[in-house]
Design a protein that fits this description.
Radius of gyration: 23 Å
Number of helices: 22
Low-confidence stretches: 4-31
Helix content: 40-55%
Strand content: 5-15%
Largest sheet: 2 strands, antiparallel
Shape: globular
Length: 530
């Protein structure tokens, strides 16, 4: 049970009230909720404060920003499998880089991130009217303001990363805002974070599920890591210095590679820095198994809801893992699928003495055998592709799982610092770079295998660094950005994707609906392709 359950529920109710209130200003509305009459206690302020964070529940793994980062890259895909999964060709277009300005996911990502901006701006406007001391709010006003500014900076970082230059709106009620350049948005995000960090709490426990000083620092490091993409000017020293600051946060690598993603990761993980809180009752929307597993896993694994048999691992990406890599052997389903049970110690195991799970479409009534072969995005079958179980799946789980979604973890801090050091050294690995990467990689192999699997300054090339980053952070929502930073997103081919060799595909077009509704909005370079 998560610590923010009841707060998130209260925030949801508050949000429903706000966004459905009457707007006829000529009447006396006694039931209207405004900043002037709603906040009568500190608890009500805290409940309202959770509304923007509740928005993250529905806009991370389940929604467009994540899908645009992962389904356009070389790790996972959502191929059509017989009669299922075509979905208007959306996933095919994303994989093949054939999206358009009217693409649903392109529109949805813009909408969801700007909705986050609006929620933050609304709270910041409310904070100006609230006397935190008089209402005995449990956190200082400066901290509350800093959290919303960091939240808004996170939204703008996503917008800048996906679309390039976008309007920056800092207050509610602005009509038809004007586009700013990508560099201007970058500078705004950096300024917001730098000014907010001193007022953010360094307490990882009380801020869990919101943003702490450490979460904002990790975001700042990530922005610096991609500065050359965003502005043309690298900021490797700034990235390294920010990563060094994070060393004081008390975070550590978890013992096992998949501990950050277990069902009780809020209690177990020492590695996770910033998460989105999920809970089957109070904060739904996680849904990992719903997208990855086959229909037969519902009964075979004793799950409450039926999976969609949607996302799969691309064959070439699966092959990039060595067979002795625990992230492969423990993190994927491949081959014949069996019922899953618990032993006397509560540990899950696959009952290979039982009847295998059965197919229901192309292999109806036959054993369900996942194969690492898919002809193309339009020629998949129900058993196509390995399936990720990176996030632990508990029996009796609903589609909405209890695992908290990981935005940033300490392993990423180590990788960011390692990459910045490597780039400063002429794209050659230093011993410090190797030590940082090996410190994370080591837990993916047994002690017997480690000596032959660890990197050296000779074996850790830039291409290998990108490959290892892909394996360690597989399906965590960063692969597109990483490939762009390494110059691989539009210049390389993989599985059913042919390289476009067009730099314009490094960003998504401004949605047509937005251009039509705002005359001050400027098309970006990607819009010129259509």
């Amino acid at each position: 049970m998560k610590t923010l359950n009841k707060i998130c529920a209260a925030a949801f109710l508050f949000g429903v009230t706000i966004f459905n209130s009457c707007t006829n200003l000529d009447e006396t509305i006694y039931s209207e909720v405004t900043a002037d009459n709603y906040y009568n206690s500190g608890d009500e302020v805290i409940a309202a404060m959770m509304r923007p964070w509740g928005h993250f529940n529905g806009s991370m793994f389940a929604q467009a920003p994540y899908l645009l980062q992962e389904l356009t890259a070389d790790g996972c895909a959502w191929p059509q499998k017989g009669p299922h999964g075509y979905d208007g060709g959306a996933w095919i277009r994303l994989h093949r880089h054939q999206w358009t300005p009217i693409e649903n996911e392109v529109e949805r990502a813009w909408y969801l991130m700007y909705m986050g901006v609006g929620l933050a701006n609304n709270m910041l406007a409310d904070y100006e009217k609230i006397d935190f001391d008089a209402l005995k709010v449990s956190i200082p006003k400066a901290q509350a303001v800093a959290e919303m500014r960091a939240y808004r900076a996170y939204c703008y970082w996503n917008l800048m990363d996906l679309y390039g230059g976008v309007p920056v709106v800092e207050s509610i009620g602005e009509i038809s805002p004007t586009s700013q350049s990508r560099e201007e948005v970058f500078n705004f995000v950096v300024k917001e974070l730098q000014e907010s960090i001193p007022n953010l709490s360094d307490d990882k426990t009380t801020t869990y599920g919101r943003v702490s000083k450490w979460g904002a620092l990790t975001l700042l490091a990530k922005v610096y890591l991609n500065a050359e993409v965003y502005t043309g000017t690298a900021k490797w020293d700034e990235c390294i210095n920010t990563c060094n600051e994070l060393a004081a946060g008390g975070f550590a690598l978890d013992t096992n590679w998949n501990d950050p993603f277990c069902a009780d990761n809020d209690q177990i993980s020492k590695e996770n820095i910033w998460v989105v809180v999920y809970d089957q009752i109070y904060a739904s929307g996680m849904g990992w198994y719903g997208r990855w597993l086959h229909y037969a896993h519902q009964s075979g694994w004793n799950l409450k809801d039926g999976p969609w048999n949607g996302i799969v691992c691309q064959p070439t990406f699966f092959d990039s893992f060595k067979d002795n890599d625990l992230r492969k052997s423990e993190g994927f389903l491949i081959g014949t699928q069996y019922p899953r049970k618990k032993d006397a110690n509560g540990k899950y195991y696959y009952d290979t003495t039982a009847e295998p799970l059965k197919g229901s479409v192309e292999y109806n009534g036959e054993p369900l055998v996942f194969v690492n072969h898919i002809k193309s995005m339009t020629e998949g079958e129900e058993n196509s592709g390995a399936r990720s179980i990176k996030y632990e799946i508990e029996e009796q789980s609903k589609f909405d799982q209890d695992n908290d979604w990981v935005i940033f973890r300490y392993a990423d801090v180590l990788f960011m610092k390692a990459e910045a050091l490597m780039r400063k050294n002429g794209n050659k690995a230093t011993q410090e770079t190797v030590d940082l990467v090996n410190s994370v990689r080591k837990r993916a192999f047994t002690s017997a295998d480690w000596e032959k699997e660890k990197y050296t300054t000779a074996t850790l090339t830039m291409d290998e660094f990108l490959a290892e980053r892909g394996r360690e952070f597989a399906f965590e929502g960063t692969r597109r950005s990483d490939m762009i930073r390494f110059g691989k997103f539009v210049t390389t081919s993989w599985w059913d994707h042919a390289a476009s060799q067009k730099e314009e595909y490094n960003i998504f077009p401004v949605p047509s609906k937005q251009l039509a509704s705002n005359p001050n909005l400027k098309p970006n370079a990607a819009n010129a392709l259509y």
